[in-house]
Amino acid sequence: MTKQKSRLIEIFEKYEQEILEDWMREQIASITYRKDLLTEAGLRKQSAELMGLIITASRSGNVTDISAPEWKPVLDFLAATSKTRAAQGFTTQETATFIFSLKQPVFARMKLELGTNAVALAEEIWIATVLLDKLGLFTAETYQKSREDIIRRQQMELLELSTPVIKIWEGILVLPLIGTLDDARTQVVMENLLQNVVDTNSSIAIIDITGVPAVDTLVAQNLIKTVSAARLMGAHCIISGIRPQIAQTMVHLGVEFGDVVTKASLADALKYAFQQAGITVT
Question: If DSSP codes are grouped into helix, strand and coil, which group holds residue 239?
């Protein structure tokens, strides 16, 4: 099919404006059209630009191999459009429909042009189907990758927001932890704590695990990693918020924090920190 001479380019060039108008009607009438995210003028601009790029690429005679160099501008445009729509909040279906809705207008003009030749009509419809399906799948795949990138970035932002380091007193930091402490989060916790130790020149850091639902061997190891890293930076760490249930679990698991100071509550940890810093609260 790649080497077969197709009349698709002739049909695109002859009926460019008619296909564009029919395509616009298809998109606007579709239930996937999001007028709250994209204006009709914006949609028309995107559609007209893509039509022009497809026509230019098709003039080479290659209308099915979109990996060829002449199709790169088309793919670049679709990639940029997919990324933009992913960021705006379009769904996969709404993004893919941008391409697949072009089929009906193209098929209608093919029927008008080749209606008396059933064999030629079938061949051209097949070629157009192959082309538009490839472009549609490329658009959907690019959209999906963009969404995954956005989700990963948001997860990292949430991790950073969920591990705030608070300067509670001169030279004393508090790091309240909420939720599970896995390897990825441990890395974020460690980086945030060490950076704040340097920025504030603090010598004491309290890691409060009141909001951690359970402490198993992995969580304990990750806490020890964080404490060890802070110690290398010259900060003394205190772990607070060890509830009775967690204490019992740690005993059963044989988990030990070694010479790390642990306290039952944040208040106890603060009291100990003040004593270590030579501060008297009256």
Answer: strand
The 3-state DSSP class for residue 240 equals strand
Whole-model pTM over 0.90: no
Helix, strand or coil for residue 172? strand
- Report yes or no: 154 and 164 within 8 Å, Cβ to Cβ: no
Class of CATH domain 166-277: alpha beta
Nearest to 15 by CA among 114, 117, 129: 114
The domain segmentation of the chain, as residue ranges, is 8-155, 166-277
- The winner for highest mean pLDDT among 43-47, 112-116, 214-218 is 43-47
Q: Which tokens sit at 227?
A: 């404490």
Architecture of domain 8-155: Orthogonal Bundle (1.10)
Is 66 in contact with 95 (CB distance < 8 Å)? no
User: How far apart (Å, rounded) are the C-alpha atoms in residues 143 and 151?
Assistant: 12
What does the pLDDT look like over 175-221, one tens digit per residue? Answer: 888 877 777 777 788 888 888 999 999 999 998 988 888 777 777 77
Long-range residue pairs from 85-92, CB within 8 A, at least 24 positions apart, any chain: 85/37, 85/38, 85/143, 86/143, 86/146, 86/147, 86/150, 87/146, 87/150, 88/37, 88/38, 89/37, 90/34, 90/37, 90/143, 91/32, 92/140, 92/143, 92/144, 92/147
